[in-house]
Protein backbone atom coordinates (compact mmCIF):
# COMPACT_ATOMS: atom_id res chain seq x y z
CA UNK A 1 0.00 0.00 0.00
CA UNK A 2 1.00 3.62 -0.35
CA UNK A 3 2.75 5.38 2.54
CA UNK A 4 1.94 8.87 1.25
CA UNK A 5 0.80 11.54 3.71
CA UNK A 6 -2.82 12.52 3.11
CA UNK A 7 -3.50 16.00 1.75
CA UNK A 8 -5.60 18.38 3.87
CA UNK A 9 -8.72 17.64 1.79
CA UNK A 10 -8.35 13.85 2.32
CA UNK A 11 -9.46 11.91 5.36
CA UNK A 12 -6.44 9.76 6.35
CA UNK A 13 -8.74 6.83 7.12
CA UNK A 14 -10.98 7.12 4.05
CA UNK A 15 -11.70 3.49 3.03
CA UNK A 16 -12.20 4.49 -0.61
CA UNK A 17 -8.61 5.82 -0.76
CA UNK A 18 -7.33 2.57 0.78
CA UNK A 19 -9.29 0.42 -1.68
CA UNK A 20 -8.12 2.60 -4.57
CA UNK A 21 -4.44 2.32 -3.65
CA UNK A 22 -4.63 -1.46 -3.18
CA UNK A 23 -6.46 -1.93 -6.48
CA UNK A 24 -4.01 0.29 -8.35
CA UNK A 25 -1.06 -1.66 -6.93
CA UNK A 26 -2.74 -4.87 -8.11
CA UNK A 27 -3.00 -3.52 -11.69
CA UNK A 28 -6.60 -2.34 -11.78
CA UNK A 29 -7.33 0.71 -13.90
CA UNK A 30 -8.16 3.75 -11.73
CA UNK A 31 -11.07 4.84 -13.94
CA UNK A 32 -12.65 1.37 -13.75
CA UNK A 33 -12.29 1.34 -9.98
CA UNK A 34 -13.72 4.82 -9.51
CA UNK A 35 -16.71 3.99 -11.72
CA UNK A 36 -17.35 0.79 -9.75
CA UNK A 37 -17.16 2.61 -6.44
CA UNK A 38 -19.54 5.32 -7.68
CA UNK A 39 -22.05 2.78 -9.06
CA UNK A 40 -23.65 1.00 -6.13
CA UNK A 41 -20.96 1.55 -3.53
CA UNK A 42 -18.43 -0.86 -5.06
CA UNK A 43 -20.87 -3.68 -5.77
CA UNK A 44 -20.30 -3.57 -9.53
CA UNK A 45 -18.56 -6.79 -10.60
CA UNK A 46 -16.87 -4.99 -13.51
CA UNK A 47 -14.28 -3.76 -11.01
CA UNK A 48 -13.06 -7.34 -10.56
CA UNK A 49 -12.34 -8.02 -14.23
CA UNK A 50 -8.85 -6.50 -14.07
CA UNK A 51 -7.76 -8.19 -10.83
CA UNK A 52 -4.79 -10.44 -11.52
CA UNK A 53 -4.70 -13.95 -10.04
CA UNK A 54 -1.85 -16.43 -9.71
CA UNK A 55 -2.68 -19.40 -12.00
CA UNK A 56 -0.55 -22.54 -11.92
CA UNK A 57 -0.74 -25.77 -13.87
CA UNK A 58 0.61 -28.62 -11.73
CA UNK A 59 1.93 -31.63 -13.64
CA UNK A 60 2.79 -33.55 -10.49
CA UNK A 61 4.78 -33.49 -7.27
CA UNK A 62 7.89 -35.12 -5.93
CA UNK A 63 9.78 -35.15 -2.65
CA UNK A 64 13.54 -35.44 -2.44
CA UNK A 65 16.29 -34.86 0.04
CA UNK A 66 18.58 -31.87 -0.21
CA UNK A 67 21.47 -34.14 -1.21
CA UNK A 68 19.39 -35.57 -4.11
CA UNK A 69 18.44 -32.04 -5.12
CA UNK A 70 22.07 -30.96 -5.18
CA UNK A 71 22.96 -33.99 -7.34
CA UNK A 72 20.62 -32.87 -10.15
CA UNK A 73 22.37 -32.03 -13.40
CA UNK A 74 21.34 -31.33 -16.96
CA UNK A 75 19.45 -34.38 -18.21
CA UNK A 76 18.40 -35.57 -14.73
CA UNK A 77 14.86 -36.93 -14.53
CA UNK A 78 12.59 -36.14 -11.59
CA UNK A 79 9.90 -38.78 -11.08
CA UNK A 80 6.48 -37.30 -10.36
CA UNK A 81 3.49 -38.79 -8.54
CA UNK A 82 1.37 -38.94 -11.73
CA UNK A 83 1.12 -41.35 -14.62
CA UNK A 84 1.04 -40.41 -18.29
CA UNK A 85 -2.56 -39.55 -19.17
CA UNK A 86 -3.55 -38.59 -15.61
CA UNK A 87 -5.28 -35.21 -15.40
CA UNK A 88 -3.24 -32.24 -14.24
CA UNK A 89 -4.35 -29.73 -11.60
CA UNK A 90 -5.21 -26.11 -12.31
CA UNK A 91 -4.57 -23.98 -9.23
CA UNK A 92 -5.72 -20.40 -8.68
CA UNK A 93 -4.17 -18.62 -5.71
CA UNK A 94 -3.04 -21.97 -4.23
CA UNK A 95 -6.50 -23.54 -4.49
CA UNK A 96 -7.34 -26.33 -6.94
CA UNK A 97 -10.23 -25.23 -9.13
CA UNK A 98 -10.10 -27.64 -12.07
CA UNK A 99 -8.41 -30.64 -13.69
CA UNK A 100 -7.46 -30.97 -17.31
CA UNK A 101 -5.31 -32.56 -20.00
CA UNK A 102 -2.25 -31.17 -21.75
CA UNK A 103 -2.86 -30.32 -25.39
CA UNK A 104 -0.70 -28.96 -28.20
CA UNK A 105 -1.76 -25.53 -29.48
CA UNK A 106 -0.38 -23.18 -32.13
CA UNK A 107 2.65 -25.18 -33.21
CA UNK A 108 5.08 -25.79 -30.36
CA UNK A 109 3.00 -24.36 -27.51
CA UNK A 110 1.06 -26.36 -24.94
CA UNK A 111 -2.23 -25.60 -23.22
CA UNK A 112 -4.71 -27.25 -20.90
CA UNK A 113 -8.10 -28.61 -21.98
CA UNK A 114 -10.36 -28.52 -18.93
CA UNK A 115 -11.78 -31.91 -18.03
CA UNK A 116 -13.67 -30.99 -14.86
CA UNK A 117 -14.33 -28.11 -12.47
CA UNK A 118 -13.72 -29.03 -8.84
CA UNK A 119 -17.12 -28.90 -7.07
CA UNK A 120 -15.61 -27.66 -3.79
CA UNK A 121 -14.61 -24.49 -5.64
CA UNK A 122 -18.15 -23.62 -6.74
CA UNK A 123 -19.93 -21.80 -3.88
CA UNK A 124 -23.10 -23.51 -2.70
CA UNK A 125 -22.20 -27.01 -3.91
From TrEMBL:
Residues 47-117 form the Flagellar motor switch protein FliN-like C-terminal domain. Gene3D superfamilies: SpoA-like. This is Flagellar motor switch protein FliN. FliN is one of three proteins (FliG, FliN, FliM) that form the rotor-mounted switch complex (C ring), located at the base of the basal body. This complex interacts with the CheY and CheZ chemotaxis proteins, in addition to contacting components of the motor that determine the direction of flagellar rotation. Its main location: membrane. Keywords: Bacterial flagellum, Cell membrane, Cell projection, Chemotaxis, Cilium, Flagellar rotation, Flagellum, Membrane. GO terms for biological process: bacterial-type flagellum-dependent cell motility; chemotaxis. It is found in: Cell membrane; Bacterial flagellum basal body. GO terms for molecular function: cytoskeletal motor activity.
Amino acid sequence: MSDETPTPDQDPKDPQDTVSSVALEDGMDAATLEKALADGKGRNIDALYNVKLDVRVVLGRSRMSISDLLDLTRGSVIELDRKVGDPIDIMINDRMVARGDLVKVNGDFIGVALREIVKDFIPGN
